[in-house]
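tool_call predict_complex ligand=flavin-adenine dinucleotide
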Amino acid sequence: MVSFAAMSTPHTVSAEEFLPRDTADVVRTVRDSRGRAERLTVVGGEPLDDGLALPDHRAVVSLRRMNAVLDINLGRRTVRVQAGAKLSDIDRRLGAHGLGLPIVGDHRDITAGGFASVGGVSSASHRYGLFTDQIVDLEYVDTDGRIGTCGRHHHTDRFHRILGAGGRAGIITALTLDAIDIDKDHTWLTTDANRFLDFDSFVEHAHAEILRPGNAALQVGRWVDTAPLKVSRPVGTGQVQLGTVRFGQWSSLYPTTPTRSLRARREVGTRTRKSLGAIASAASGRAGMPVRNAAAGALMFAPKVLTLRDAEYLADTVISSSERGPAYRVGIFAPLSSYSSVFYRLHDLFSGHRERTGCFTVISAMTYGVRSAYLRAEADARHLPVEDHGLITFTCRLRPSALPSELLRDIVAGIDDICVSEHALRYESED
Ligand SMILES: Cc1cc2nc3c(=O)[nH]c(=O)nc-3n(C[C@H](O)[C@H](O)[C@H](O)COP(=O)(O)OP(=O)(O)OC[C@H]3O[C@@H](n4cnc5c(N)ncnc54)[C@H](O)[C@@H]3O)c2cc1C
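tool_result ok
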């Protein structure tokens, strides 16, 4: 019996949405759609409602009903899940056995299949690499509707083709993941934060911390740079610039021993972050932008003490979906030998375009280390130097309709040029 449902979604004017419950349903969906002109689009959970959806006539397969945790193998420390299972739910189930996922995304709705399809990074990537490094094997349905399996040690070519392919190489239906011994609710972390007012010192510090993270459980650097607000003076006297903010923070979070006063400080921090999150979510549209930016800024002031579980979802608690919006985003894995150079060049590229055309308002960057066997293999396959990486992401807020396609082409060409000359890899996250 075919148990998936076809319905229209409130988010797009999508013709159909399929909700398979098991692999056999996925096979039928793919086979039944082979004659269609339009490609099937796969999503992990609910499609994002960012207020920007365009009329869309694609057929969408959502795996949100394939969300079961199938098996936890305590001896091997692995967990088998359906691809639509949310990482936060898997992690909670593992927590009951003193286990956890080493890499989870920073919001609670990310699914195992969706994260596997983009690679998956987190502020623990300097220790554990990508989410794809944690995948032992997977089951998938290919574009002809055939079921296959592949893994770290079998059909490895296929494994690499499907991972990070963003759904283009088939639909992942189930995965086996490595888990680690960890109690995320009782692992306490203390934040060691360094703040910077100039970009060069920030980059230099980030590079040093990524090279030598010590026993930091998590690490992250953030840089924010707002466009100068120009105000005209009386005729002939030019313009004055007001309100530029350039600010960076590096945070390393180290394990610490819980004491009663630490727990009390954590309670206060949690309440403050939740109210900032509520303010940020309520402040929608252009009028809400300053409020959302203020909430995003608060992210830089992570509480001094918190549990590993809280730390992993800090961004989700504070800003949730309000961080989405018209922006140009790019993620680059820079080899550590050219990390600083990549960071400077990307920064110059974006701030140069902002200065010349005014296309961006706030330019922000986020960075941390990534020690990934998967990425090293990727570099090796492309005949690039095999070394560890630093992830550098830039988010450039767009002035409405200020990024014409010629300008976008220039920016993309500039990024490609940086990647080729610095042996860096693009992170094709689709958020
Ligand atoms: C607020 C926010 C925070 C984020 N934080 C992080 C983060 O911390 N780290 C990070 O790495 N990324 C992050 N991202 C990006 C996010 O991880 C990816 O978009 C992630 O893949 C989303 O998972 P999803 O389950 O919602 O998948 P979707 O967004 O639905 O899909 C992501 C991609 O995977 C494909 N896909 C989905 N399911 C499957 C499947 N079963 N088989 C094959 N292909 C599939 C889709 O076609 C799409 O190309 C964030 C995104 C947002 C919006």
